[in-house]
Amino acid sequence: MKSHTTITTLLFDWDGTIVDSAQLGLNAYQKAFAELDFVFSQELYEVSYSPNWYLTYEALGLPKEKWAQADDLWRLHYDNETPAIIEGAAEALISVRDKGYRLGVVTSGNDDRVHREAKQFGLEDLFEVFVCHEDITRRKPDPEGLLIALARLKKQPEECAYVGDAPEDIEMGRQANILTVGVRSNYPSSARLLSLAPDIYLESLAELSNYFTGVAQFE
Q1: Same domain, 88 and 173
Q2: Which residues, at least 6 apart from 48, have a Cβ–Cβ distance to it below 8 Å?
Q3: Claim to verify: residue 109 and residue 181 sit in the same structural domain
Q4: How many C-beta atoms lie closer than 10 Å to residue 203's C-beta?
Q5: Which residues pair with 207 in a beta bridge?
Q6: Looking at 31, 51, 78, which one is the last position of a domain?
Q7: DSSP codes joined into one string, 76-127
Q8: pTM for the full model?
Q9: Residue 3: inside a domain
Q10: pLDDT digits over 162-198, tens only?
Q11: Domain end: 78, 95, 112, which one?
């Protein structure tokens, strides 16, 4: 396992890690597919779900020419709802911030939605950087998003950890050569998380401060 003692910065996935958006996301998929007059298989969704939703579209058999319309419909239906923040998430984030860690978000989510939800939950000022869908050209598990965050924060990989709930999050962190922290969520992909062997596994984000107890003085 990589060392905790050099960690000064914690980067977080958004959906499933900080906000409990799993059911709202599923609802939006179902409504979007219904409007496209295309059969939605929840069974296929559960085994193929990915934060890279184009892989999910592909697994569900949605023709590529319908993807852009599916994106618009998904956003329309999702934006009509408000997800809940995961229990204990705000307290966990405030705790590690107060212990001297710098915080950032690296997510597949759209910039306007993520910022809206962060502001709604009073979290926006906790994070120094947001890297969202619009900032990247290569989707998870490609490490591009993490590398952008490292560059913006002027941090080295050994100074950072990435916290996420999907197998792609762990693989992305591994490719970026940073410490990986897996956290259980309500998304179907969470069931496959342990198979990626994250450096740290949390049943709840509330456990985060048990592992990150404070930035070392020499940092």
Answers
A1: yes
A2: 55, 56, 59, 60
A3: yes
A4: 8
A5: none
A6: 78
A7: HHHTTS-PEEPTTHHHHHHHHHHTT-EEEEE-SS-HHHHHHHHHHTT-GGG-
A8: 0.92
A9: no
A10: 999 999 999 999 999 999 999 999 999 888 899 999 9
A11: 78
